[in-house]
Amino acid sequence: MGRIFITKTRFLRAQSRCFCRALALAFGVVLGQALADDIPKPSAITPESRGTFRGRPTVKAVRVDQAPDIDGHLIDEPWHLAKPAGEFLQKEPKENVPHSQRTEFRVLFDDDGLYIGVWCFDTEADRLVALNMERDGHMRFEDVVMITLDTFLDRRNGYQFSVNTNGARGDATISNNTSVSPEWDGAWMAKSRRHVWGWSTEIAIPFKTISFDETISTWGFNIYRNIGRSNESALWANSRASIRGHHVSECGDLTGLQGLRQGLGLDITPYATGKYRRDYDAKDSDLLGDFGFDIRYRLTPSLTALASVNTDFAETEIDRRQVNLTRYPLFFPEKRQFFLEDSGIFGFGGGESSRRRSRDSSDTLLMPFFSRRIGLSSKGQIVPIQFAGKLTGRIKDYNIGLLDVVLDGEDGPRNAFVGRVSRNVFEQSSFGFLTTVGDPNSDEMNSVTGVDFQYRNSNFLDGRTFEANLFALGSYSEDLGGLEPAWGASTKLYDRNIDLSASAMEIGDHFNPAMGFVRRRGTRRYMVEADFTTYHDNISWLRNSRHGYEAELYTDLGNDVVNTKQSFDLVSLYLESQDYISLKVSHLTDRPDEDFEISDGSIIPAGDYEWWDVRLLAYLGMNRLLFLRPMYRVGGFYDGTRQQIELETRYIPWPKLRLSLAYSLNLIDWDQFEDSSIHVMSGMVQYSFTPDLVLSSLLQYDDISNSMGVNSRLQWEYKPGAKMFFVVNQGYVDEMTGFIIKDLELVAKIGALFRF
After folding, report:
1. What confidence category does residue 334 fall into, taking pLDDT thresholds of 50, 70 and 90?
2. Residue 705: phi, psi to the nearest 5?
3. What pLDDT sits at residue 127?
4. I want to staple 692 with a disulfide (CB 3.0 to 4.6 A). Which of 258, 430, 682, 717 is the partner?
5. Are 372 and 385 contacting, i.e. CB atoms less than 8 angstroms apart?
6. Looking only at Cα atoms, what is the longest distance across the chain?
7. Which of the residue ranges 46-55, 346-355, 380-389, 711-720 would you say has the lowest mean pLDDT?
């Protein structure tokens, strides 16, 4: 009986297992069928819509009666009405080979806007890289698509829209085919979705957000895609390695855009602010409230006027602290939205730095117009702006930028005016004029006038890019009288393997642009740079290696050498893991003719100095959750020796939360003075509830000022183009008993957007 029972039990268990297996099989079949149904079948791409290595592919936009839902799914019926385009070609790491993953896109439009759907297929969809959630985050090493629009088909100017798999958005304007202004924030929407087959993104760009010519039915168009895990990038049109996504001249064609309308082209953005300030030393506080508004009006499809009344920048990000170990002023970038918008049109002389690869602000030697001078004193204190007006855009072949600002002054209002006009010549070049009139920080008269010529050819010597820039300037100051000159010339030649540049610049002894930036006066600078990159297809772990040389020479106007720098890039390795390691050796000389003081108060005597230093730099984990940027420099420093240690780190435990830390230490062993030890550190916590609702807090400390600052910001774009801010600024002083609060500022700002 027991045997029968056991046998029967085993039989029932076997039946149960068979039933479960059958159920699992059935469920698997159903699920598999569902997933298979979810996987879009490859579409037939017409020859004219296929990606090109050279040339302009074409895609047609289809007018629809009903706009698709912007949810990232791309399953709405309107998408079936448009023909697909795709078959991208790689630009990195290889040229002119098919992208390893399939990409398709379609374009729709209606009376209100343009709609772009992108299918990013990926055979390893579980390895997608998505690190950013916030607006305008750095998405270079993630899975991202970037749209370029040339809405006037001038092959020079346009817009850029970027979206990653999290739906984080980035946008920018493009001027003269090279200058990118990521500070522009357009009112548009995008949503992304992950799938078993990859990811998709759906983009809606209202016609009221962008400027375009209603009389033309074809726009310049391009799409860039990057695969984050391998940093494999591709372009739809002109996928050469030397071509960037913002090179409007290389766009393909988007056709079929008949009957577009912008409406009145009128945007009104009112805002209100409330501020509470407390000075703990003075035991004083005040509560303020104010309001203002911006008005933007398109005078023509390509010419826009912007007026700002009672302009307020309370929500602007604070500056990052810097250590100055030179005898020249530091450069702090502009961060205020009003001045950054359309700032590229005011660019002069081909860029402020002749080094294409460098992001070091110390390269900025001369800017004849630097908007940060307006509304901020030399010490960074706010100077109230009563009114600001701006006119930017194009009239036929002319690019126009006019800016007029009325500020509070000691003896009444002060006026600052900037005018910039350039004319397009040849295919990608221009000739222009710049003038500034007024001194935002003085009642004395000041003006700057200059001309420049910018030449660019992206098909030079079999596909290389060649640039040449010339400029000449003269400044007039009431206290000095007469004109003081400045001039410069630079050339660049680059492609996938070479990067060559040379430049020369002269700045007069008394050259004084009151609305500009000058690092050094009474000087001539000569510079040459050569980088050579080799790709290693036969080494599995190494993508490319770079070797380079750079020489920089400064003289006074009598051609006596003041200082020199030679840098030897012994080796820079870019690994397939997306890590980067560089070893550089530099030789420097300096001949200060008078004593000068560095940040910590150390005095460097006049004399002749010569030293070498070695720098080891690495970028580790640029496409991973944990990123590290260690740097170690050791060598001489005037009459002492210097060690410099820097560490930047970023950790993203999940997409909504970002933690970052930066630390810098300079240890200087002086021969004649007490040793120097300079510490600067900062830390940030950022939480993105959604791509449009972000909370961040930045803490900074340095032992030069012995102070700590805390800046906390809550930013919410509650609808496209309309934002709310809440900002808390706290200043602390390091005293014997610890950190004591010195000042507190609370700011609340709300804005709205009305479009007509």
Report:
1. confident
2. -90, -10
3. 95
4. 717
5. no
6. 120
7. 346-355
Arithmetic mean of pLDDT, 655-669: 95
The identity of residue 212, as a single letter, is F
Please measure the distance between the N-terminal and C-terminal CA atoms of the chain and give it in whole angstroms: 90
- Indicate whether this model's pTM tops 0.90: no
Per-residue pLDDT of 223-269, as tens digits, reads 999 999 999 999 999 998 888 878 899 999 999 999 998 878 899 99
- Amino acid letter, residue 426: F
Residue 202, pLDDT > 60, answer yes
On whether the CB atoms of residues 539 and 508 are closer than 8 A, the answer is: no
Band of residue 380 on the pLDDT scale cut at 50, 70, 90: low
635 bridge partner residues: 613, 642
Beta-sheet pairing, 89-92 with 113-121: unpaired
Distance between CA atoms of residues 682 and 319, nearest Å: 12
Residues 6+ apart with CB under 8 A from 699: 682, 683, 684, 708, 709, 710
Pairing of strands 58-60, 252-255: parallel
If DSSP states are collapsed to H, E and C, what string results for 108-139?
A: EECCCEEEEEEEEECCCHHHCCCCCCCCCCCC
Nearest to 132 by CA among 578, 712, 686: 686
Q: What is the pLDDT of residues 584-619, one digit of tens each?
A: 999 999 999 999 998 888 899 999 999 999 999 999
Higher pLDDT, 489 or 396: 489
Q: Which of 652, 662, 745 is nearest to 702 (CA)?
A: 662
Q: Which two tokens stand for residue 122?
A: 């990926």
Nearest Cα neighbor of 390 from 310, 313, 312, 294 is 294
Cα–Cα dist 416/370, whole Å: 12
Reading the block at residue 325, the tokens are 């170990």
Cα–Cα distance for residue pair 655/688, rounded to 1 Å: 8
Q: Quick one: CA dihedral 151, 156, 161, 162, positive or negative?
A: positive
Task: Return the HEC string of 13-25.
Answer: HHHHHHHHHHHHH
| Structural domains in the chain plus CATH codes | 47-255 (2.60.40.1190)
CA count, 13 A, side-chain hemisphere, 498: 11
Please tell me the distance from the alpha carbon of residue 484 to that of residue 476, in angstroms, as a whole number: 7
Residue 373's contacts (CB-CB under 8 Å, 6 or more residues apart) are: 440, 441, 514, 515, 516, 517
Instruction: Give 281: exposed, middle or buried? Use CB within 10 Å, 0-12, 13-18, 19+.
Output: exposed
Q: How far apart are CA 478 and CA 280, in angstroms?
A: 41
Scan for tokens 């006038």, then name that residue. 449
Residue of higher predicted confidence among 7 and 222: 222
Bond prior to 485 in cis (omega within 30° of 0): no
Q: Do the Cβ atoms of 553 and 566 come closer than 8 Å? A: no
CA distances from residue 744 to 55, 110, 248, 702, 747 in whole angstroms, order as listed: 58, 50, 46, 19, 10
pLDDT at 32 over 80: no
Residue 578's Cβ-side half-sphere holds a number of Cα atoms within 13 Å equal to 21
- Please provide the DSSP assignment of 312-363 as one string: --TTPPPPPP----SSS--------HHHHTTGGGG--TT-S-S-SS---GGG
pLDDT at 379 (0 to 100):
66
Within 10 angstroms of residue 422's Cβ, the number of other Cβ atoms is: 27
Handedness of CA 272, 276, 279, 283 (dihedral sign): positive
Q: How far apart are CA 308 and CA 329, in angstroms?
A: 31
- Helices within 458-597 (DSSP H only): none
